[in-house]
Amino acid sequence: MAARETDMLIVVDVQNDFCPGGALAVPDGDAVVPVVNRLSERFAHRILTQDWHPAGHSSFASSHPGKAPFETVEMPYGTQVLWPDHCVQGTGGAAFHRDLALDGAELIVRKGFRAAIDSYSAFFENDRTTPTGLAGYLRDRGFESVVLVGLATDFCVAYSALDARRLGFTTTVVTDGCRAIDLNGSLEAAMKEMATAGVEFVAAATM
């Protein structure tokens, strides 16, 4: 598939803390960077998302005495995985990977900045109702489809893809432009849920 004027490439959370050596490193996470950079040359329109947590965020295990990273707690909006402190606002871990091509990005969507609620999706907080404003931005500019790459396949990419479909956008995930955490089978579950929702999967070489 070739990129069209109505396609928006959404680059999800390619940040230092999600890459090797980071606080919440996704295995092989930095391998997406050259793939994303090549795709960026083929798209006229590009958006970046950036995890942007205040210190002491409620999704951090350190905010819950007696809890360890990757355990869960119940929040008002549902079950929340507790993470190591990561992507804290203004830190090097929250910065984009140094080799990521940033020129030409039309918008940076910062998410997870509300202390009491986590935010995986580029479109909604984890309550699935509080919007980031991205849907309105895309619609106002006439975009009909989104193509997703980045980190991590089974969390922020999947949540973004599912919300994009729920909002009526044609949605494609470039599988080799993503990497997964795969927490207790989360990758397989996310792939099945995305497929059921009508998300398309492609390899970067086909675009």
Task: Describe the structure in your own words.
This is Nicotinamidase. There is one protein chain. The protein has helices at about 30-40, 135-140, 155-165, 185-195; strands at about 5-10, 45-50, 70-75, 80, 105-110, 145-150, 170-180, 200. The chain has about 210 residues and is α/β, with parallel strands linked by helices. Strands 5-2-1-6-7-8 form a 6-stranded parallel β-sheet. A hairpin with a 2-residue loop joins strand 3 and strand 4. Helix 3 packs parallel to helix 4.
Runs in which pLDDT lies below 50 for 5 or more consecutive residues are none
% residues in beta strands: 15-25%
SS class: alpha/beta
Q: Name the shape in a single word.
A: globular
Helical content band: 10-25%
Quick structural summary:
This protein is of the alpha/beta class.
Any key phrases for this structure?
22% strand, 8 strands, 207 residues, 4 helices, alpha/beta, 6-stranded parallel beta sheet, two-stranded antiparallel ribbon, 20% helix
Give a topology summary:
Elements: E1 7-12, H1 32-40, E2 46-51, E3 72-75, E4 78-81, E5 107-111, H2 134-140, E6 145-151, H3 153-166, E7 170-179, H4 186-197, E8 200-202
Parallel strand pairs: 1-2, 1-6, 2-5, 6-7, 7-8
Antiparallel strand pairs: 3-4
Helix pairs in contact: 3-4
